[in-house]
Amino acid sequence: MTSARVPGTVQRPGVRRIVVVGDPPSTDGGADALVARAVPGAVAVEALSSGHARDLCRAFGADLLLLDLDAVMPSDASVLAALVRDVAPVPVLLLSGDAGPGAVRAAVSAGARGLLPKSAGPEALEHAIALVLTGVDLIPLPRFPHGRADGIGLSPTDRLKRLTARQREIYDLLREGRSNKEMARRLGMREGTVKVHVRTILQKLDVHNRTQAALLGALLP
Predict the structure, then answer these.
(1) Residue 172 confidence (pLDDT) above 60
(2) How many other C-beta atoms are found inside a 10 Å radius of the C-beta of residue 46?
(3) Nearest one of 77, 121, 75 to 95, comparing CA atoms
(4) pLDDT category, 54, cuts 50, 70, 90?
(5) What is the pLDDT averaged over residues 68-83?
(6) Which carries the bigger pLDDT value, residue 204 or residue 211?
(7) pLDDT value, residue 153
(8) CA pair distance 213, 221, nearest whole angstrom
(9) Fewer Cβ close by (within 10 Å): the C or N end of the chain?
(10) What is the pLDDT of residue 4?
(11) What are the structural domains of the chain?
(12) How much is the mean pLDDT over the chain?
């Protein structure tokens, strides 16, 4: 982005406002089209810097801050934490070329609601935007009994290795958006058996729901 642009619709009542910093992966139409596909009727408000984004979030009562870390990566993790704190309660979704343990730690420490690698592509980003707006956390992080993050480091590939061959078949269908009934029909299983497998898959992948499980596949190298 070379200039800031505030759409005229941004101040209309009921309009969802998503402040965008950097250059998120998108198809034709840029940030506007990306946001419109993720949340019909929403508008993208493009910012030049993290400081500008902070001002826009305050001025327009933003619903989400989408921050490209590669474009505005602070030299100190405390700067990112301060930004997340300053725009609260606006949720922050981070994009990064690196979604490894270090990036995850920084995101968790800062209080971001989501972290997605750019390699996931525009479709995964659209889903992530919609989910974070509904209150879902999208940090690629295992669940710990006491909310601890000191075990970060288990990659998506390693998590998927936990699945049996049958569970991997079901997972692949889950990623396609198949219902339990469709999966049961495709695999010649009872629907109740599929439900049990799905619950086990979520536990093994350390995710909370089917959508997070599907997005985990986007983190694969």
Answers:
(1) yes
(2) 23
(3) 121
(4) very high
(5) 77
(6) 204
(7) 47
(8) 16
(9) C
(10) 46
(11) 8-133 (3.40.50.2300), 156-219 (1.10.10.10)
(12) 80
pLDDT digits (tens, 9 = 90+) for 111-168: 898 888 887 778 788 888 888 888 877 776 444 333 334 334 456 777 888 999 999 9
